[in-house]
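INPUT
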Amino acid sequence: MISRKEVKHIAQLAKIPLREKEVGQFQRELGEILDFVRLLEEVDLKGVEPIFQVTGLENVFRRDEVKPSFKQSQALSGAVKKHRGYFQTQSLF
Amino acid sequence: MKVKNSNLADLNVVEALQGLKEKRFSSRELIEACLERIRKLDPTIKAFLTVCEKEALLMGQKADRLIAQKGPKAFLAKSLLGVPYSAKDVFCTKNIRTTASSRVLANYLPPYSATAVERLEGAGAILIGKTNCDPFGFGSSTENSGFQVTKNPWNLKKVAGGSSGGSAAAVSCGMGLFSLAEDTGGSIRQPSSFCSVSGIKVSYGRVSRFGVIAYGSSLDTIGLMAKTVADLSVGLRVVAGPDPKDATTLKEKVPDYSSRLDSLPRGLKMGLPKEYFQKGIDWQVKELTEKAVKVFEDSGLRIKEVSLPHTRYGVPAYYLAAMAEASSNLGRYDGIRFGQSRALFEPEVKRRIMLGTYALSSGYYEAFYKKAMQLRTLLKKDFERAFRKVDVLLAPVSPFPAFGIGEKSDNPLAMWLADVYTVTINPAGVPALALPCGFTKESLPVGTQIIGPQLSEPLLFSLGHLYQQKTFWHRKRPVIVNSTNY
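OUTPUT
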């Protein structure tokens, strides 16, 4: 079972604002799912290499050449807040 | 003989191309027929989030002008000229609203198009609209969509499947002649089966993922849904192939799939994974799958039982891997550069992000994500071992046909367990072709899937094409469509 404290901690790591009543709901659901995935503990994984890339491709390079990309206006087109060609965010300090 | 306008939407891609070449109808008439279907049926079905009526008709006009100028030669450079299609709303389409079916992207206008979309446009295909799905691909029913639930055209009380439910419903009703979609854990195959259309989940890396809203980057594959395998073979040729913008695309040349449909090697062996036929499978799905096996057996294939021993660990391994990758991918929705606050994420999206974050967090990485990646090696080896004994596998897509809307939506785990036959395929990176294989006594569609080794799309297509010449399931249309023809 996962604690409310842990749920809040994960939500904070994942930057997902949660309302108080959502904490209890996710506590239940996450707990159930985590119990289910413990099924993996049945398998003997000694000596099994993890596989992250299924086609075996490695180090796919391209030439380091500058090519045209977005115009500034395109790059900013989805911005909630803009300021003189910059994305505007909340202050961190 | 002039084809009645409203019936044009019931043509498949190959028939439509033939008709356009022979000038029996125009691209504009074809598009208008599909738009008419959308107008009549979509208020009920709710397959579309955005319809591009003006743009599509304009492109249709351009296509007609090109055909008038160059005649059949116009189709040499543009193999899908004039054919209307829909795209799952996870494909970025320049200046056309793209939401991933999430409220976080409710008004997002991408400043660029996905490579797959650009390639289809280059081949003359015409985008008619963006289809509803589960948000970011998270779901198996479209019930998690931030906007609407897509109804199954065969029974409006049932789900269309997911996550590409909108695409499947659209294709089955002639709201566009094919659809561009994406499969990470069954998202093309399961809705294809629920809605009685054909769908291809390609080998990982066969089609560029550039411009497709990412779910699990080591699992996502881009594919198509259409009325026939022949249609899929035309479409895949257009979108497949290396892309410098996606470093995971395979360098291998793309075969001319449609020209090879009739070439089937002799002495093929088809394996039936015994773990897929154990308890939990609906008896009608089992029976229809066995009937499908018989068609292949009667066509000369040798049928053998094989084992994929790690199948039961497929669901937890897949979900851990997918969740972890998704939590990382969805970190980009910061509500600063685009999109809205993360508080607006749908509940299933929040659930998966948090699970993924947990699985990757300090202290848990070894227990969860690393284990999932190790299981992945075992799943891949299961398939490799099986493909040393047989050439392809045949399996059901879903343990049951389309379930009722609301039936599973309050139990996330039950929904996940329903993916048992589809999720083991993506971690191994192998391709699978979903085909309609019959209907239950309650008139619900059932699909089957043919699974092959990496890059075996030509073989899957040939087998699927053979099946569709010996059966007629794929020719049936939902009753609701008949109400629009008069």
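end of record. Chain B has 16 helices and 13 strands.
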